[in-house]
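Example record

One chain of 429 residues, shown exactly as stored in the release files.
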Amino acid sequence: MTRRPHPAWTVAAVAFVALVGAAGFRATPGVMLHPLHAEFGWPLGVISAAVSVNLILYGLTAPFAAALMERLGIRYVVAGALLLVAAGSGLTVFMRSSIELVLLWGVLVGLGTGSMALGFVATVTGRWFVHRRGLVTGVLTAGGAAGQLVFLPLLAYLVQGRGWRAAALVVAAVAVSVVPLVLWRLRDHPSDLGVRAYGATADDPPLAGPPAGRGAVRRALGVLGSAARTRPFWLLAGGFAICGMTTNGLVGTHFIPAAHDHGMPETAAASLLALIGIFDVAGTVASGWLTDRVDSRVLLGAYYGLRGASLLVLPSLFGPSARPSMLVFVLFYGLDWVATVPPTVTLCREYFGDAGPVVFGWVFASHQIGAALAATAAGVVRDRLGDYALAWYVAGALAIAAAGLSLLLRRRRPAPSPAAEHAAAAAAG
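Predicted structure tokens for this chain:
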């Protein structure tokens, strides 16, 4: 008799597809900055500001979406988020002003993608997995990188051959196409199917629900109020803010324009960024595997330190073609891109228990605030100085500082179980 796979794996697979479906928009800013600048004459700093609004809302929405998933369920929140992404991307074909760009790229898509941000990953893995939680977190996190891998070369090709509007419509169509699958197969709790979480036993405590009588907003703000009184929250949030500065905000938004400044065709630069996405998939899955086995604090310190070193040498690697040294950077940086996520999710659960997914939503909000600051600041640096060199050097130094913040985290001593307390009392008696 063939043994059926645990339903948790089906839920994880559908979540992965949803994350890939929403990732298309996050690949578009890098290939659309110059086309929008050329057509509308908007400064890069203005276009980057629209990206910054998106990044801020992408982060700030995450904790409220995680709390809303506790109330309404995962699949309804995710389906609504995909429709927002489709609307925000598709309606850009009608825009005529930079204000419309901010409302569509920034607000609508920011809210949609934020509802499927890494707080969504933390919620799914926290509810459905006990064993392999770190590994599954890594795989789902890699969904965003896989989306970039799938969409970025295609979008660059569409922008070059058919214009940026075709690329925006493709993103909208893909987001809509994922909605039926989410409504059909994504489930909220193992108990909905009469099973336990993967790897759970009868002795494991059930997942605590949200406090009675509290809405999603009050739940999210209440968790923030409690977490903000702790030292680990600020160390995690500070490090993750720098993580956002040195990934989405800087490299994700400005790598293609920076390479183009040195004579590299945009399609070639987009292919390099997609190649980073390939290595990111491997690096993030490997990071999830390591998170199940190695102290997450050590992992974060290593990831941030190595990232900082790679960014400090990047300005010397740009040229009209991809030299071997640039390919080494792509390999090295790609393995490290979002490898920070699995250990950060694990530490949020270690320090904050069942509130970990909502706390991680706030930590992720700091990530996106950092990304937004870097996206705008790098655009201004380019407008004022004529190149991006200063932005790369500052980002490298900040990443090394984030390594120090991670190593300041102290291991949390687990609370003794009731059985252990009883045995200790008996021994003392």
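Notes: The chain is about 80% helix and 0% strand.
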